Amino acid sequence: QYVQPSYGPVYAPQASTAVVPLSRRLTGPSGYDDINDYGDSPYYDDRPIPGGYSRPPIRHRRHSAVSFVTPSGRDAYSQYRHGTRPGSLSIKFKRKGAFMAGIGLDEAQSHVRLSNNDAYSMHDLHADPRGRILLKVKWVGYSSLTYEIPLDAYDGRVNLSTLARRVSRACVHYLQANVIPVLWDRVELHHLEEVSYGVWQPMLSTR
After folding, report:
1. Partners of 149 in the beta sheet?
2. Given 40, 79, 126, 160, which residue has the most CB atoms within 10 angstroms?
3. Where is the DUF6741 domain (predicted)?
């Protein structure tokens, strides 16, 4: 059950099973993504977040944006899908023209141009029937938190830049919610690894 008014009580004691939809209900009524017509479907506010780190301000909501899923529920769905096995694919984020993979969380939110922007399909990412994946964010010494990320696709090809932006904002929220002493604009996103079917973990480092 959601406990008002702060973020903290939501994440303990079930951090490994909590799913936070990236939602305007989480970020306030004025938060709108660049992709419209979601209605009440979860998506994340794309407004810029100031640099640095701090505890997020108190937000008042009409409904909780936190829902829960069970591993058995996800596994029951996965048995009806076919394709690459979990862990066999990593989603790399590389600036256009760059030699090495890796973009800053701040760059991801600045609409940076990525190489192979449409290289992956919804099928590759094992999206659920609603076109969403789960993102399990983890920092050493802190409990993990799982976010629900909607995918933006055209003709079945995922827009990698939009995915990077949404992953970045989830990571920033995670860093701030846990008051992790690191400047988020010094954190780099290398790639996503699939840890279980349709559940992806971002590989992060500081620069």
Report:
1. 133
2. 126
3. 85-206
Bond preceding residue 5 cis, omega within 30 of 0? yes
pLDDT at 32 over 80: no
Nearest to 169 by CA among 153, 197, 143, 150: 150
Domains in the chain: boundaries: 8-45+64-206
pLDDT, one tens digit per residue, over 83-107 is 455 667 899 999 988 888 899 999 9
In this structure, are residues 11 and 145 in contact, taking their beta carbons and an 8 Å threshold? yes
Tokens of 56: 């997020």
| pTM for the predicted model, two decimal places | 0.65
The string of DSSP letters for 9-66 reads HHHSS-TTTEEEE--HHHH-TT---SS---TTS-----S---SS--PPPP---SS---
